[in-house]
Every structure is written in structure tokens, then in C-alpha cells.
């Protein structure tokens, strides 16, 4: 069998993301299976901001990527060989796979995908709306306490950063469905238009609060307070650093901050600026809670069913960009880190996967 893979040849340097010449495409051997492992033909992989941390050498919920290693990625594929009795050839699986035609994995960290068969046009959506990004948004929103949820008698305000991204855009739409006044924070005007098209009540562009290419935190705080004069009751943070710092003084008393991502630190994770307004969280008695759902199989499976219902009912809109072939992973990664993507970027590994995805 043919196995083409994207291999890390050196770590990114200060020229990232303009320069992405740290990968190379190689033909690598087809992995041989040990007991308990499966061989997967990779159909699609997703491009995620956290990959910058993986590439830095830092350990997260997966091991750091080593020089000479095939690039890992959340992916969906089909079992073509198995040495695990309870996992059959032809089963669609989801989890951390590789940017390659074929990869082997132990089955423990993987998910069997119900309902879909090879050729289903919804399969790539397992990396966006029905995958980690969409289900993280959904399960994060389920953490909001009842007294923070709006009713006919009380209005509540919800804010989300990276609101045009694959997680933030879903969280915003769920919040709108729950009855919140919704505010998005994005980088530029094109993304603002996209977020408003999703139904957001307000959207702030932090590029308008920059001087010498740096966000002026106080200026962004003023914009946040302008659109949320009564304070933010729930903030879904995908950005960290300056954006989180700007939101803190705008939180309502006993507000909730869900910490989902820190995209502003991913390019320079060793040189983080830190928070200057953290004292605001004390005076306002704000609760901060970190969220990761990838390893919780029960929440993933229950969220999958809930999300299908939300999409089928027309409550959630989603947007994806699909590129073809291992070679175009770098193009997708660059678009993410230059802030050019609208929704989720997905790489279809093979030019033909029974039927090409039509989204």
C-alpha cells in the first residue's frame, strides 16, 4: 500500500506563520501492527490552532511532536486492518490520527463513529460541527449554571472571542438559541460580517483597537463596555492574553468565564504577556473554568446526538474550507494562523474518497 506523509523536519521559528518551511512530504513505510492496534486509511484531517503548541515541543493532551515524526491531527478514517478483535475492518473511526494516507493506532483513545458509512458527505463534518470543535462548544455551553441563563424576566449577555472560528461560531449560535444577548470578538471586518450573519447582536474587531500592531487592552475594554453596559454574564474565551485581559473588567458580578483556548499565545507561547486586569475577577467574584472534552467519551457521544438535532432543526449554521492532499496541509495551517479562515479548515487526504465531500 502507498503511504505518503507530512513529516516535521525542524521546529517553527520566529518567522512563523509567514514561513512554514519546516515540513516535508515523504513516502514512508506502511506501519506494521502489534496486538491491540488497528491500521487506518485516513480520509480527512482538521487544522487546529493548538497544533502550534504541539509543534513547539510542549506536551498537551497528546505528546509533543518530535523532529522526524509524522504530523498528528484530529482525523477521521476507516479501518483497513485490525489486530483488535472488537474493532472491524470497514469501521469509521475518529480521533488523533496522522497527516498521512495510513496510520496505526491503539484503539483506546479512538471513537467508533455511529450512523455514517464510507461515502457519506457528512463524514468531514466529524472534524467541525460534529467533531471536537463543535462538541467542545456544545459541552462547554452545558456548563453554564441555571442562574446565568436568560429568562423572560432577566436578560443575560454572552461574549465569545475568535467568534468566526469553528468553536466560537458554534458557541455563539447556541448562546443565541438559549436567549442570550450575544457579542462576538474577532480580528477584522470580514469576520465581523460573518459573525453578524450568524445572528450576533454585536461584534467587536480588535484590529480597530491596535497601535503599532499591538492590542491596546484599555481601548478594547472600552468597546466591550460600550456594547455590554450591564456586564458580560458568560464569556467563552478562545483567545487568552490581551483579549481575555480586556474582557475581565467588563464582566458582570459573579460572571462565568469558560477557558477553551488561547490562540493569542500559540505563536509565542514561551513569551506570554500575562494578565494585568486579573484583580477584576476578584472584585466581581468571577468564576473561571477550563474545558477539555476530547477524552470524555460519554460527553462526546451524547453531544454528537444533540448536535445533529440542532443542525437538522436549522439552529446551527456551519462553514468549512476543504483542501485536497497531504501537501495542502501547510496552506491550511497558514490560513489559520494568519487569521484568514472562516470556520473549519479540513484536509481531504486522498483526491477520491468514494465521493468527494460537497459542503
UniProtKB/TrEMBL annotation:
Keywords: Oxidoreductase. The keyword Transcription regulation does not apply. Coiled coil: none annotated. Residues 15-347 form the Enoyl reductase (ER) domain. Pfam families: ADH_N_2, ADH_zinc_N. GO terms for molecular function: oxidoreductase activity, acting on the CH-CH group of donors, NAD or NADP as acceptor. This is Enoyl reductase (ER) domain-containing protein. It comes from Paramecium pentaurelia.
Amino acid at each position: 500500500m502507498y503511504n505518503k506523509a507530512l513529516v516535521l523536519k525542524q521546529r517553527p521559528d520566529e518567522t512563523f506563520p509567514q514561513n512554514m518551511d519546516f515540513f516535508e512530504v515523504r513516502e514512508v513505510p506502511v506501519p506494521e501492527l502489534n496486538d491491540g492496534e488497528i491500521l487506518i486509511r485516513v480520509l480527512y484531517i482538521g487544522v487546529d490552532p493548538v497544533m502550534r503548541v504541539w509543534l513547539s515541543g510542549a506536551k498537551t493532551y497528546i505528546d509533543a511532536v518530535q523532529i522526524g515524526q509524522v504530523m498528528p491531527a484530529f482525523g477521521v478514517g476507516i479501518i483497513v486492518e485490525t489486530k483488535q478483535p472488537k474493532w472491524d475492518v470497514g469501521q469509521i473511526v475518529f480521533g488523533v490520527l496522522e497527516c498521512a494516507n495510513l496510520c496505526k493506532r491503539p484503539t483506546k483513545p479512538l471513537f467508533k463513529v455511529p450512523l455514517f458509512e464510507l461515502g457519506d458527505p457528512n463524514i468531514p463534518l466529524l472534524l467541525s460541527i460534529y467533531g471536537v470543535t463543535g462538541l467542545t462548544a456544545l459541552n462547554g455551553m452545558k456548563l453554564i449554571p441555571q442562574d446565568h441563563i436568560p429568562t423572560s424576566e432577566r436578560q443575560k449577555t454572552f461574549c465569545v472571542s475568535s467568534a468566526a472560528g469553528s468553536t466560537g461560531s458554534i458557541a455563539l449560535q447556541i448562546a443565541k438559541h438559549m436567549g442570550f444577548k450575544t457579542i462576538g470578538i474577532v480580528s477584522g471586518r470580514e469576520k465581523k460580517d460573518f459573525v453578524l450573519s450568524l445572528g450576533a447582536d454585536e461584534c467587536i474587531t480588535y484590529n480597530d483597537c491596535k497601535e503599532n500592531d499591538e492590542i491596546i487592552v484599555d481601548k478594547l475594554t472600552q468597546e466591550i463596555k460600550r456594547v455590554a453596559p450591564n456586564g458580560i454574564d458568560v464569556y467563552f474565551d478562545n483567545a487568552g492574553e490581551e483579549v481575555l485581559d480586556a474582557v475581565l473588567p467588563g464582566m458582570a458580578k459573579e460572571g462565568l468565564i469558560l477557558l477553551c483556548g488561547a490562540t493569542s499565545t500559540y505563536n509565542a507561547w514561551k513569551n506570554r504577556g500575562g494578565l494585568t486586569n486579573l484583580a477584576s475577577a476578584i472584585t466581581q467574584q468571577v468564576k473561571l473554568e477550563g474545558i477539555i472534552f476530547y477524552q470524555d467519551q460519554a460527553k462526546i457521544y451524547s453531544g454528537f446526538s444533540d448536535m445533529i438535532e440542532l443542525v437538522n432543526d436549522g439552529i446551527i449554521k456551519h462553514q468549512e474550507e476543504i483542501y485536497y492532499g497531504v501537501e495542502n496541509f501547510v496552506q491550511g495551517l497558514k490560513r489559520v494562523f494568519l487569521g484568514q479562515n472562516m470556520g473549519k479548515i479540513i484536509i481531504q487526504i486522498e483526491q477520491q474518497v468514494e465521493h468527494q465531500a460537497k459542503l
